[in-house]
Each structure stands twice: as C-alpha cells, then as structure tokens.
Amino acid sequence: MNILAYSELNSFAFAFLFVIFLNVRNKGQKYLYDQRVFLTMLALNAVLLVLDTMQWILIGKPGAVMRILSLLTATVYCAMTPFPCFFWSIYADYQIYKDEDRIKKRFVPMVIPLILNLLLTFLSVFYGFLFVIDQNNIYHRGGLFYFMAGVCYFYLVYSVISIVRNRESLEKKVYISLLLFALPPFLGGIIQALFYGVSIVWACTALSIMIIFLNIQNSQLYTDPLTGLYNRRQLENYMRGWIKNGREGAALGVIMTDLDSFKRINDSWGHDAGDQALVEAGNILKDSFRREDLICRFGGDEFVIVLKIKEGGDLTDAVKRLKTNTRTFNERTEFPYSINFSVGFDVYDRESGMSVQQFMKQIDLFMYEDKSRKKSAEKTGAGLHKI
C-alpha cells in the first residue's frame, strides 16, 4: 500500500471519528465519567491518525527541517501510542464497576507502563531504543520497539480478562461490544508488527470506537430526547452495575423528584408548555448537581438523581441545593407557571439485598409522602413553601 492509500485510509477514519465526536457533543451527554473517557479515547485516536499520516508524508524528505519534523513526529507518535489502550482499560473498568474511586486507586500502578514508554521514547531521540531516523530521513524501528507494542497489548489483555471475569454483571450487548473492541486493534497490531511498512492499527482502532459508539454510547439508547438527560434504561444499568460491583464501604444516594401541578400546566397552557416545563426542570437539576452525578428522566414528570456520597449529610445538602436553585428559577422566570418539586431520597443499603426495582419503589413512596404532606398543608392553610 503506498503513501496515498494510507493517507486516504487515515483521512477516512479521521472523518468518521469527527462525526462521532460531533454526535456525542451535540447530545450534551459528555458530563458523565464514561463519556469523558470515551471522548478522550476518540481524540487520542484522531491525533495518532494525523501523526501516522505525517510520518508517511515525511519519509525520505531531504533537509534539516524535514529531519527535525520527522524526529518530532516520531517522538510524539511513540509517546502517545499506548494512551488509547490505557484509556480503553479505564473505560472498560468503569463499564464493569461504575466506580471512579476504584479507578483512582488503581491509577498509579496502571500508569507505570505509560511512564516507562514515555522515558524510552525521549531517550530514543538520542539512543534509538524505540525508533531511529536515519540520514535519509527514513523511519526504522528500534531494538526495544516491541516494548511499546507490549504495553499496548498489556492494557488490551488486562481489559479483556476483566470483562470476561465479570460477564455476569454486564448486559449481554454491552459484554459483547466490550469484547469486540479489542479485536480490530489486536489483529491490526499483529499484522503491523509482522509486516514492516503496513500501517493499519489506528484505522482498526477507529473501527472499534465505532462499535462502542453504536452499541454502548449511542444516545438514542440511553438518553431522553426531550430533556437530553439519561433515561430509565441507563439508570437501571448504572444501579445494577454499582450494586453488584461497587466498592465496599462506598455509599450511593438516590433522589427522586416529580413536578407538582404538572397536569395543571398541561391543561392551562398546553402540551408545548408542559414539554418546556420538563426541559426547564431538567436544567434546574443539571445546575443543582455535580458533573459526575447521574441525572435521569425516570418517566413522565419524574426524575431520578444518583450520587456517590461519603455520608448521609451529603444527600441532604444536595436536596437543599435543589430547593435553592428551584426558588431562584421561580423568582426570575418569565414563564406563566412555577416549577416545583416533590422529593423523596434515601441511601442505598447494600446489606438490604434490595433489587433496583425494590429500592426505587421505596424512594417513590418517600416522594409521594412528601407530595401528600404538601397537599395536606395547602388544605389546612399551613402554607408550607414548596421546593
């Protein structure tokens, strides 16, 4: 395959990644941890496609400037090569355990191979460990080139083992997609290692990203089209994963809210106003909770927020924040109606053995108790302020 063919292949893969990037960004779902990791992986793959193309273009070009460019491109390329595989291992771990703290605890040992590869990369400029640029400006593999390849395969194999060991806790479609991710770069890397001059590994990795996008990240599967929040399916997947694989001692708080007088908004101002009220309610929730909290439209005018907390007081503080932001919205809004929530919340007790459905029913009961208290207060003239 000649330089033009490789450039066309890489350009096509880059364009495809760019379309996926725009799709994920425009859906507004990048605030959760797995979306951020996915976009990082995608961006790294795109940069490596550009660097790979540049290396082909620079091969054999004479002159000191071209030599400097060749050295710089090869250095950055070798330094970055294991990073997509590293972030893939993080992504797979999160899909299995849904636990950022677990990843943080394992970050230091997992990053050691990356650091060693970075060290060898920069030393290669002087000693040719991973690569050599000869006097004719032609790239050659160094004596320790396969160390870099080994780092990449370490992350891929480690992830595959984790996925297989925890297959019972994964939805079948997610399990198969996670396994399939490793296959194209694994095979592409072997072919590229065995046949010097073949360069297809990053196009193969782009194919893997497409697999993940279509089967796991696709927003139509996991987000509500009206509000842009996550939907009930994503909530249940997240809760099941955390209950089965979450770190011992970690606490999970859940808040369920429902719009007061939503039927009256629909009846008085029409369904368009009702839809707008749901969108504004979603915006209030986004402003009230952290980026890493899971905010979902549960159905109808009900919303659920899942938070990782250190103590029960964190959950109470979050509810207070919601009350404050709701009050501020109502003071400033130009809409003819107010947004008001009834709220139920609790901390999931792992020892209870409750399923996701059982726990959600309990939270739902607490929420309707809050709604009933407000209605009783209104009837008796107590005038309790709605949140």
TrEMBL record:
<feature type="transmembrane region" description="Helical">
    <location>
        <begin position="176"/>
        <end position="194"/>
    </location>
</feature>
<feature type="transmembrane region" description="Helical">
    <location>
        <begin position="200"/>
        <end position="216"/>
    </location>
</feature>
<dbReference type="GO" id="GO:0043709">
    <property type="term" value="P:cell adhesion involved in single-species biofilm formation"/>
</dbReference>
<feature type="transmembrane region" description="Helical">
    <location>
        <begin position="64"/>
        <end position="90"/>
    </location>
</feature>
<feature type="domain" description="GGDEF">
    <location>
        <begin position="250"/>
        <end position="387"/>
    </location>
</feature>
<dbReference type="InterPro" id="IPR050469">
    <property type="entry name" value="Diguanylate_Cyclase"/>
</dbReference>
<dbReference type="GO" id="GO:0005886">
    <property type="term" value="C:plasma membrane"/>
</dbReference>
<feature type="transmembrane region" description="Helical">
    <location>
        <begin position="37"/>
        <end position="58"/>
    </location>
</feature>
<keyword id="KW-1133">Transmembrane helix</keyword>
<feature type="transmembrane region" description="Helical">
    <location>
        <begin position="145"/>
        <end position="164"/>
    </location>
</feature>
<keyword id="KW-0472">Membrane</keyword>
<protein>
    <submittedName>
        <fullName>Diguanylate cyclase, GGDEF domain</fullName>
    </submittedName>
</protein>
<dbReference type="GO" id="GO:0052621">
    <property type="term" value="F:diguanylate cyclase activity"/>
</dbReference>
<keyword id="KW-0812">Transmembrane</keyword>
<dbReference type="InterPro" id="IPR029787">
    <property type="entry name" value="Nucleotide_cyclase"/>
</dbReference>
<dbReference type="Pfam" id="PF00990">
    <property type="entry name" value="GGDEF"/>
</dbReference>
<feature type="transmembrane region" description="Helical">
    <location>
        <begin position="6"/>
        <end position="25"/>
    </location>
</feature>
<dbReference type="InterPro" id="IPR043128">
    <property type="entry name" value="Rev_trsase/Diguanyl_cyclase"/>
</dbReference>
<dbReference type="InterPro" id="IPR000160">
    <property type="entry name" value="GGDEF_dom"/>
</dbReference>
<feature type="transmembrane region" description="Helical">
    <location>
        <begin position="111"/>
        <end position="133"/>
    </location>
</feature>
<dbReference type="GO" id="GO:1902201">
    <property type="term" value="P:negative regulation of bacterial-type flagellum-dependent cell motility"/>
</dbReference>
